[in-house]
Amino acid sequence: MTRYKATIAYDGTDFAGFQSQTNQRTVQKEIEKILMKLNSFEPVILQGSGRTDSGVHAFGQVIHFDLKGKVRDLERLRFGLDTQTPADIAVKKVELVPDDWHARYQKHEKTYEYYLENSITRSPFQRHSKAYFRYPLNFERMQEAMSKLVGEHDFTGFTASGSSVDDKVRTIYQAEIIHLDEENFKFIFRGNGFLYKQVRNMVGTVIKIGNDRMPVSQIDKILTSKNRDFAGPTAAPEGLYLKEVKYAENTDI
User: Fold this and answer.
1) Does the annotation mark 53 as catalytic?
2) CA-based nearest residue to 12, from 53, 43, 62, 66
3) CA gap 61, 69 in Å, rounded
4) Three-state DSSP class for 31?
5) Average pLDDT, stretch 179-206?
6) Is domain 2-96 classified as CATH 3.30.70.580?
7) Which residues in the chain are classed under CATH 3.30.70.580?
8) 10 is in an annotated binding site
9) For 84-128, what is each residue's pLDDT tens digit?
10) Catalytic residue (choose from 53, 66, 99, 154)
């Protein structure tokens, strides 16, 4: 068996998330169908760097999988996967990795981006690619709130119920908001890991602060109390993108 690492992109609109689920269309299932064909119709179980929820997109999700037989030509393998998977999945790169390399457990950092349209009327052309908020937002207040998320914190207060992770301490290296133009914002979060719906819960809280319905100090209250009830609503999934996964072997992590 030979282990391969692949970098993929996908439009999450018509998927029930990344991970396989019974009777649901998922990114993992679609790719595994093609891998099975390439593996003489023997099942292949791939592993991802993490899950993304229903409706969430990815520019740079990372997976690994094992195929039997001699080492494949990497570009032919990439091309075969890319052309046989559905149009809402793209296989951007395939690499060889050691047999013990693991997309989830190798030390890494992730970058997420969140795109928000802030206008009186929503563009019908962006309804699947950007979240929407119609009410006024104070950019300076949102910037101040985002800065409070940087550093090592217990993010229990920003975690959705259903998380099976006990240790909720994570480090955020970058939390930035960019005013792209009069009607569009981009949020950037880079860290050593993120909890279940953490990014969307942080965005939902910052939006509420930007709309003057919470004080900037609410961020401190959520982090200190570890109480989800003090945070804002979970932001819509269509604005969220897994931008990049960087592993320790080729970064300064």
Assistant:
1) yes
2) 53
3) 26
4) helix
5) 97
6) yes
7) 2-96
8) no
9) 999 999 999 999 999 999 999 999 999 999 999 999 999 999 999
10) 53
